[in-house]
Amino acid sequence: MEIALFLLLAALTVGGVVGFLVTRNQAHGALFLVLSFASLGGLFGLLGAPFVAAVQVIVYAGAILVLFLFVIMMVNLREGVPAERKKWTLVVAAALGLVLLAELGLAFGRLAGGAPPATGGSSTAGLGTLLFTRYLYPFEITSLLILAALAGGLTLAKRKDAP
What we know:
Blueprint: H1 2-22, H2 26-46, H3 50-74, H4 83-112, H5 124-132, H6 136-158
């Protein structure tokens, strides 16, 4: 039964991501993303991580998608991409793909080498202890960066285009 549920949730996750990538309508893309985030939360639940599953569903499928929908409503995405930007898209995508392949190679090489996993964050209590002791300053700096990005997004959304 668990394997059937895993396969169903995995198919929903992959199908939601593929639907997000191929749809032309931004609102439909956001709904496909909700499907993939929610099914990913179900996969975390199957792995025995109920806290991560709940955070996945509440934070990503809830809060982040609301922000995506607000951006879709505020920004007119129907204008299209300028031609000079289109020609660089393939080059940038290929470069980022090569970086991703290099990172995956390093990660799998490290796993194959038998490197021990990082300790201290294997439980919710351990993660909280690490976040608020050893990584307190990076955690707070991240919150300031998110706040600055939010202020910048609001500023860009309020700016009127010159005639």
